[in-house]
Amino acid sequence: xxxxxxxxxxxxxxxxxxxxxxxxxxxxxxxxxxxxxxxxxxxxxxxxxxxxxxxxxxxxxxxxxxxxxxxxxxxxxxxxxxxxxxxxxxxxxxxxxxxxxxxxxxxxxxxxxxxxxxxxxxxxxxxxxxxxxxxxxxxxxxxxxxxxxxxxxxxxxxxxxxxxxxxxxxxxxxxxxxxxxxxxxxxxxxxxxxxxxxxxxxxxxxxxxxxxxxxxxxxxxxxxxxxxxxxxxxxxxxxxxxxxxxxxxxxxxxxxxxxxxxxxxxxxxxxxxxxxxxxxxxxxxxxxxxxxxxxxxxxxxxxxxxxxxxxxxxxxxxxxxxxxxxxxxxxxxxxxxxxxxxxxxxxxxxxxxxxxxxxxxxxxxxxxxxxxxxxxxxxxxxxxxxxxxxxxxxxxxxxxxxxxxxxxxxxxxxxxxxxxxxxxxxxxxxxxxxxxxxxxxxxxxxxxxxxxxxxxxxxxxxxxxxxxxxxxxxxxxxxxxxxxxxxxxxxxxxxxxxxxxxxxxxxxxxxxxxxxxxxxxxxxxxxxxxxxxxxxxxxxxxxxxxxxxxxxxxxxxxxxxxxxxxxxxxxxxxxxxxxxxxxxxxxxxxxxxxxxxxxxxxxxxxxxxxxxxxxxxxxxxxxxxxxxxxxxxxxxxxxxxxxxxxxxxxxxxxxxxxxxxxxxxxxxxxxxxxxxxxxxxxxxxxxxxxxx
Length: 692
Known about the structure:
- With 692 residues, this protein is α+β, with helices and mostly antiparallel strands.
- Helices cover 25% and strands 24% of the residues.
- The strands form 4 sheets. The protein has a 7-stranded antiparallel beta sheet with strand order 18-19-20-21-24-22-23. The chain has a 6-stranded mixed beta sheet with strand order 1-10-9-3-7-6, with no helix packed on it. The protein has a 6-stranded antiparallel beta sheet with strand order 2-12-11-8-4-5.
- Helix 5 packs across helix 6 (307-314) and helix 8 (421-435) packs parallel to helix 11.
- The radius of gyration is 26 Å and the shape is globular.
């Protein structure tokens, strides 16, 4: 990959023969793990202005109808997370001369508070072409990272690195996106929760610029305050939002999107033993082979019939936006014995074909390196672009699912990608519950797919087994015989990391927001070295620890599994408001937690340098503190800087995902904590009016 400095430019054609479509990545890290920003893309004409508001893409308008731009969302990395954008340069309208890639922060946060600001551009196969780092960020609240621009028949990339102290509103104004005056904005609430309801014509409008600049109204992201009335407008529920005069109007939704209600209609069955008829039945499946064949056929058929879903799953793999066809059990020559991949995906655009071979595993069966290697060789010989593996396992950064050899002498490159069945279910749920699809039939198909994946006989349940090392490591910790450097502890740490990634997928699918693991290591650090260090800590204190954050919040949820006490702890820190009277502050907290579980542990966090330091203040269960809120205040008058809210849950004894399993216990603990505690602190709203 070529590194360039700020202000430099380079021809994409000179860097790759396959630069007709690229994946742009924006990344950063944060010492606190809570730093975040929103990505946006603007298509500009020769005058440096958008042609209309539909040339502005952001989280509430993530994809172009022609497939030229698609925001792929955040993905976790070893050192934080990064936002990825798919750009099909062959589909960009001729009138578009420049594609500007920017990001903005909200709630007064600045880019100078983030570390390792970086932008990279990769080709369709995922091969990094060019990148550069921003090291001079300061008070800016919006940043143009870079731009793609035309020069004759080729596309070039320029490292811009230009910041705005005026946020996304100032950036948008520069490029011709209208900013409304206060009188226009004050006519009534905007967005999908406005007066005409989520399906009305005005409901398709939001406040794009304000949405990206304004903070999410998530209580744990801000110091304690009086809870807003549930019926208050969105603008009242979001303290610190951008003033109305700085707001702009979002692009109009060109057509209605269909979502399904979360609660199913009342059943007409005579009794609970009746099973509803399903498009994809599973009770007859008796073998792993049958499950693999059925799962592949079901998934690929729905991908081909629901364009939003098929595009969502393949865009990150370099596939263009075009007509998709899918096939199963295709016989392809390979030496003396033909090979039969489980499936083939083909996408046609402008007379060109993009092809991927699909290898599927269900029921926890591992991928076989020999099989995948054969498909990689076949794909290279036939000029196919990718091999996609699907299994219940979850991929880790810096760790391939299977080891394959790539013949460097071959001119044609083949990319190897992996999908977890949990990720497939996550994307389907996001579409039908939160983002919507083109019509009711597509929504129904996705619902049937979800029902199939969730059936106990489908074999498509995601990560379900902590591995062979789990039982001996846990026993070694219990009887204190586990030694440092035991390779089995690294295996357990890797399984724990997979579990946390899957927990994030499930939570994010339910909320309609991205949920991501938080990594505090600096960018470029060795992921394996980090896992070895975590394994050493496991040997020392017997705990597996992780942190996760829901997109749009600044709070971090900590998850810890203590193998010595067999307890799972989930917790979050809530900052105290400046200048508030201590007892009033405690009463506000207890009022917000009115519907939280009675066994919730609350402890005061004391200012560093007083008492014994942070975390050493008074504590107690919510049940005990409700009648005596003053018990949460230190007797010596030490300053309270916040509170830590924690729930404890018994840890499953087995390594699997059964009712008594460890995986199920962690999943349930996070879900109970989020809905029972975090959600009790107030309405969780996505920026721009989207509710989780």
